[in-house]
Amino acid sequence: MRFVVAIVQPQKLDAVREALASIGVSGVTVSDVQGYGRQKGHTEVYRGHEYTVNFVRKVKLEIACEATMADKVVETISTAAKNGAGKIGDGKIFVLNLEDTIRIRTGERGREAL
Q1: Which domain holds residue 58?
Q2: Dist. CA 88–CA 64, nearest whole Å
Q3: Over the stretch 57-105, which tens digit does the pLDDT of each residue have?
Q4: Number of structural domains the chain divides into
Q5: Which of these, 21, 26, 58, 81, has the minimum number of CB atoms within 10 Å of its CB?
Q6: In this structure, what CATH number is given to the domain that contains residue 30?
């Protein structure tokens, strides 16, 4: 099993969710997050005053899937989340090994719990 964690732009969330649903992904956990990478924040003007925003708003998606499905999940997220402008800030995807999964309600383990 694999655990896929993706950090994407908030405006890409619906496109990514629809793309994942189209390949059969049935469960995704979504969190609003903030951070910075190469973007290093940005400058905004509010009521005539300029200020620096050090952390950029992003959305984090977490998906547990079969190992055989992980490459397809990564490819789908990457395609749906890409801005197309070739600019920094489209996001990152991390793939981790998932040792076990347990469904609390039934006690099922492994792939049956997904």
Answers
A1: 2-113
A2: 27
A3: 999 999 999 999 999 999 999 999 998 776 788 899 999 999 999 999 9
A4: 1
A5: 26
A6: 3.30.70.120
